[in-house]
UniProtKB/TrEMBL annotation:
The keyword Transferase does not apply. Keywords: Cell membrane, Coiled coil, Membrane, Transmembrane, Transmembrane helix, Transport. The chain crosses the membrane at residues 66-86, 92-111, 118-137, 149-171, 364-384, 390-408, 420-440, 446-464, 469-489, 501-519. This is Putative membrane protein YccC. GO terms for cellular component: plasma membrane. It comes from Kushneria indalinina DSM 14324.
Length: 698
């Protein structure tokens, strides 16, 4: 009988889980010991700081998270001092300024893809809350605010430093190993997607699911690669290789999606030689996936490229068929670079590659929603505090802001929060038993404190290392530590314990309620914003292709597109299976960007006269707007007019051979087919979307 996630964690724990829990416990006990030796007011904040750094325990990720945590804490402390300097005698004004700062932090956190940076923004907001609110509660003097700021920063920085040190010294785990495995997965899944797209016996649904999986892996590889730069002198080289692999995987996915549709919907285009070439590509890519060494993979791909070139598919058939053959060679070129980049990750000492990180798509509407939601959370807590002068109300203001900022960008934040609350409920029970009963009867010695306090914490850390129960473990560890409050002067006051428990429970309940009341913007609105953003970027590609290399412009476009495609895929999952087309629409937008860049370079390298450039620019602008029109269920005839004008100009200029012009004509024919298809698919969906069939995501 298969064990559930909890049974696997506690009945059959693997060695990595036990090592992780041991490392975490050592880091937390060390931070607690140093905080108590330094006579800090609230040593448990050092422990909480160390808890957060245990998520993703690889050394590079811990170092990056530590920098973000320390930076956010220092900045938050400075902002707290500044707020009190401006409104020392006006507590209401201080709380209003603090709400503005929380809005800035929460909004900024939603505009980054790096979770460690998101956590840094959360700590910036939380530290400012602690400085301002504790100053108002305790002292309300200039010296008091400075002392509180120094104490809070010292506690959090101490916890981060201890967690980072233990991560590097005790059973160190390297990000580069994760990056290498991620890269291997990206290659495997992308090549499998290519095989499935070029096989007419595979349904487009299965091929679409595979490309979505590969897309997510490419984004994960790109995101995790930022931390590998902290692991030795070759770390930056590994990061660049990982970025290049992510970029070329996205480019390959953009191309394969379109050709997969064509080989299914236009079987007349495939001659016998073309069918043999497709089978050769599928068989070779399956062999490449099974090969383990770089030399074997490279040899297979190079041999395949020579066979496809020898078949001379680009010299036979209609212009569209010849353009498809040219696209197959492009796909193999991407595959070759991906294998090279994968090798460079493992052999960064001898292989140097250059590639930028994926650019970031920023949609300010959902980001502002997250900022407003976090500000509302704090405002509710502040109103309750001002009305009641509740001493424990600071926890009611801090915890919702931290969790609300961290979880806001997750696909299902309410589910994460619900699991945190479940883990927190168990943590509260453990804190009552171990922190207020057993510790109260034990000798007041550090060793006894660690033995009793650390036992439940070890179990919570075991959950923290397993993704299915991570949120439960996080809630347990945080709530257990806050309610136990290990320090030099533990009071063991049941009434105080119940007071803090009520404050935390009320704060998390308010957080959950606000998440439900203030949802993300409607999915139909966000979908339209994504399409407009894709159109705008396709318009900008003209300037970027003029001012930069094609590779740099493509990398910029890839980065901004990857999250848009994922969002469209999420919207797609809410539609009935037979009506799903948004993922294909997003991948088509990614492909059209590459078409614009390729056509620009192909034409201008042969005919760079002003009339041709003007016709080409008009055509690219028409293509961008035709893409937007087909997403709304219409076909923009201006694209047909601009295409005819471009072909007429190319033939009239006489700078390009007829064979080259026919390739451009084949590409235009393919685009015309694609745009008409999506116009038909979109028109059948728009009315039902407007009527509310497409519900907003939770």
């Amino acid at each position: 009988m298969a064990l559930g996630p909890w049974a696997r964690v506690y009945l059959t724990p693997d060695i990595n889980t036990l090592k992780f829990a041991t490392k975490g416990l050592v880091a937390m006990t060390l931070s607690l010991y140093l905080a108590m030796e330094m006579q800090l007011d609230r040593p448990y904040w050092a422990v909480i700081s160390a808890v957060f750094l245990q998520i993703r325990p690889q050394s590079g990720l811990v170092i990056e998270k530590g920098f973000c945590q320390i930076g956010g804490t220092v900045i938050g402390g400075g902002v707290g001092i500044l707020i009190m300097a401006l409104s020392m005698q006006m507590p209401a004004m201080a709380l209003m300024l603090l709400m503005v700062w929380i809005f800035i932090c929460a909004t900024s956190s939603a505009l980054t893809r790096n979770f460690n940076l998101t956590y840094g923004f959360a700590m910036g907001a939380a530290t400012a809350i602690l400085v301002v609110v504790l100053t108002i509660v305790n002292d309300n003097s200039s010296q008091g605010v400075f002392d509180i700021a120094v104490a809070r920063v010292s506690e959090i920085v101490l916890g981060a430093a201890c967690a980072t040190l233990i991560s590097m010294l005790l059973w160190p785990d390297r990000v580069r190993n994760i990056i290498y495995n991620h890269a291997n997965t990206v290659i495997d899944q992308t090549f499998q997607a290519l095989v499935m797209h070029l096989d007419t016996s595979v349904s487009m649904h299965d091929a679409r699911q595979q490309i979505m999986s590969a897309l997510g892996q490419a984004l994960t590889l790109n995101n995790d690669s930022s931390a590998v730069i902290y692991e030795g002198p070759h770390g930056p080289g590994r990061a660049r290789a990982a970025y290049l692999l992510s970029q070329r995987a996205l480019s390959m996915m953009a191309e394969m999606q379109t050709y997969g549709r064509l080989v299914r919907e236009r079987p007349a285009l495939a001659s016998e030689a073309f069918e043999e070439a497709l089978k050769d590509i599928r068989d070779t890519m399956e062999r490449v996936r099974s090969r383990q060494t770089y030399s074997e993979r490279k040899r297979e791909i190079n041999s395949l490229r020579r066979r496809i070139q020898k078949a001379e598919l680009q010299r036979h058939g209609t212009p569209l068929a010849r353009r498809m053959a040219q696209g197959l060679m492009m796909l193999l070129g991407y595959a070759s670079v991906m294998v090279e980049a994968h090798h460079a990750i493992n052999d960064a000492e001898n292989t140097q590659l250059k590639a930028p990180r994926l650019s970031r798509h920023r949609d300010y509407m959902p980001a502002l929603t997250i900022g407003i939601r976090s500000s509302l959370l704090f405002a509710i807590g502040a109103i309750i505090y001002v009305s009641t002068q509740w001493g424990s109300g600071v926890l009611m203001m801090v915890m919702p802001v931290i969790f609300g900022t961290m979880f806001a960008s997750f696909p299902s934040p309410t589910t994460m929060l619900k699991n945190v609350m479940k883990g927190g409920a168990v943590g509260a029970i453990a804190a009552f038993v171990f922190g207020n009963i057993l510790l109260a009867q034990a000798p007041h010695e550090y060793l006894m404190l660690v033995m009793i306090f650390g036992a439940p914490l070890f179990l919570g850390l075991m959950a923290l290392n397993n993704l299915p129960v991570l949120a439960h473990g996080l809630g347990f560890c945080i709530i257990y530590t806050i309610l136990t409050m290990p320090s030099n002067s533990m009071a063991f006051d049941i009434s105080s314990f119940m007071d803090r428990t009520l404050a935390i429970a009320l704060g998390l309940t308010i957080l959950y309620t606000v998440f439900r009341i203030v949802p993300s913007p409607n999915a139909l609105v966000l979908r339209r914003r994504v399409i407009r953003a894709i159109t705008d970027d396709m318009d900008q590609l003209w300037e970027r292709s003029c001012n930069n290399s094609r590779e740099r412009a493509a990398d910029w476009f890839n980065g901004r597109m990857v999250e848009r495609v994922q969002r469209l895929a999420n919207f797609d999952s809410q539609l009935p299976e037979e009506d799903r087309y948004l993922l294909d629409l997003g991948m088509t937008g990614l492909n059209l960007g590459h078409v614009i860049l390729a056509n620009y370079r192909r034409v201008t390298s042969l005919d760079d006269t002003p009339p041709t450039r003007a016709a080409l620019k008009q055509w690219q602008t028409a293509l961008a707007h035709a893409y937007q029109a087909c997403a709304w269920g219409d076909f923009d005839e201006r694209f047909t007019d601009a295409s005819q004008a471009l072909l007429k100009q190319l033939r009239g200029a006489g700078e390009m051979e007829e064979e080259q012009i026919e390739l451009v004509e084949g590409m235009i024919k393919r685009l015309d087919i694609t745009l008409h298809r999506f116009a038909r698919m979109s028109s059948s969906r728009d009315q039902r979307d407007i009527e509310g069939v497409l519900q907003p995501p939770s």
